[in-house]
Amino acid sequence: MVRPHEHGTAGHEVSYAVLIRPELDGTALPELPGTLVLGEVFTLAAEGEARPGAPFWMVAGAGDGEVRYTPGAVGVRVGPEHRDGVLPHWMMWPETEAWPGPDPVPRLLLPREADTGTAAFRLDGDRVTGTVRLRAEPRAGWPRPRRYTATVTGTRTRADVTTSPPAPAVPTVAPRVTAEHPEDRMELRSRAQSLVLERRYAEAWPLLARAAASYAASASRPGAWSGRVVSDLTSLAFMTPYQALCALELGDYDGLLDCLLAAVDVRRKLTAVSSVSGYGPRYEEEVRAGARILPGFVEAWRSRLTEDTERIDAVDASRPFHAALTLYLFEQGAHEDALVASEAGRARAFADLLSVSGSRWPSRAGASAAPRLTRAALRSVLSRHGRTVVEYAVHGDLLLIWVARPDGTLRTLGPLPAAGLGELTARWSALAPGVVDDDSVRGLDEVLRGLGALLWDPVPRSWLPSDADETVTVVPYGDLLRVPFPALRTADGRYLVERHPVALLPALGVLPALHERRASGPRPSPRLLALVDPAPLPDPPDGGAAFEPLTWTRRRFPAIAGLYPRAEVRTGEEAAVTALGGHRPPPSVVHFGTHAVTLDDDALDSFVALAATGGHDGRLRARDVLDLRVPGDVVVLSACRTGAGRVGADGVTGLSRSFLAAGPTTLVLTLCEVEEAAGFEISHGFHRLLAAGGCSPALALCRVQRELAAEGYRPHEWSPFLLYGLG
Known about the structure:
The chain is an alpha+beta fold. It is elongated, with a radius of gyration of 31 Å. Mean pLDDT is about 75; it is low at about 1-115, about 160-185 and about 360-365.
């Protein structure tokens, strides 16, 4: 027997967490780990120990009205404030694999559906545990009975109400609790949710905003009881998806992103309050789990856009939300969820392009081709990839690092200090193209050591492959896509390329399409197609200096062509865009030995210079590459800054993105200007190793860079070359 805090009618407020597990015809459905747990307040209406069959009240908070449930009675009795409302206490949000769909609000509205039920609670000191079982009979919308089991855990404290609950024997009328706000928050919320479910979004939007403002004000009230704060914040956490849905359906995308940012902020506060209030790790886990549905709203938004450029802009606009969600989950120790959230905000439009392999988006209006990674899908992708992955995220001055092994092992580092990282990256971009003396060489070496100390030295050697020839896939983010990872100087003074081959990707989400592309086609025999020293060359943009002929490269290129059993080299007027088509069988490697121009402000107008003949101006623009089917599994873009472009959440928008979307799985690119002679040395060594067989593209590039470094070549001569894609 547990004594109440005072004699007389019990009035114990209990802040609780609830997790619903649904059944159909008595058969339990698969557990839904994404179920949103609602922390509200209920009041035990019986003195002493709560026993099976005892009535109880569920109270959403002062001023919100009450829901009274009497076991054994028919129906869930609802107070007068909710006669036509939808009560949120038992609403369930599934895992993101099942959302969003045709109806983006999957729901189980138990107060409206339930017919009968039983309840049992046990008090152990001030800890409360119990179960509530409800049954809904068959009716329109579902042909079989539904059974719902809710597990309730929580803590109790003395009720802070002026009106005691009525005796258990009279459960017919629920008294109003003194309001904390002149507006009835629960009434607003219930009405708004009903309107959302009826798809009357314009009417629901202002009601949700008023209710949210009221809950937020109550939660921030000085001296508020922690249980009530948890209740208010949970109500906010529950409402933000409704608000996001309204914004989505009303076409208010700025409002949608504001709602999603607010949803993360509320969960951050809720987790902080609940952790110091004794709610336990299970409640905190369920609060975090409710955040998993949030990126689905951005996906729903993107799927309604038709142009590739619109989708790029959508991913960029969502960066603050995905960054906040990633950091929140990472700080809570949900590292796998944080990686999934980070992936949801990077290279999504790029993944769409890869999935359709060269089709223009207007022909796929409204389609969302690339599925978003979930936790299960992420494990499958990593397993199929079969390589160690090091992924980065930068949020302000904080750095997050994930290291994933093919066996599913996921390790993390962070948040680590990242102050100065942006400055170092900018210094490399400024120094590398113009190294002319010993001072600039020393300056570049200082930058590479600084980048290595921040980005690679924190990763323990034991987390990485022991084989120095095993490729590591690096997934940078933001300005880290401008970093020459192979040239980073590690703590032992070695270059990273001496420890591992490196392949770069903008996101893990692009891997399924690349692997499918490589597996679906026949493995081509070693064959080279090269477009070298085109003529006449196109005019440079903005009246700049004319492109110089590459006669030195043309004279020496037979040394590369002779490495392959079959090679076709097009020069002069033959090195035109038409040379890319009509190859049966297709070449395995395509090499461009020419000039390129990257336009950061208009990235899709960046171009590779080909022969200006046949009515074509010679500019193979990034936007035009999307219409091509570029032959070859490996493409070498040996020209200046072919890996540069506009950096954003979708990766690098420019030549690299377009060429990888147009057919190949691997690109060799340059980050900055390169000298003709140095470029030829890199190209010759790469083709020598690749054509000989037994060497992946990533390992071939790695070995030639190791050779050049050992022969005394300076980093600025070989570090601009990167491998992008599968490797």
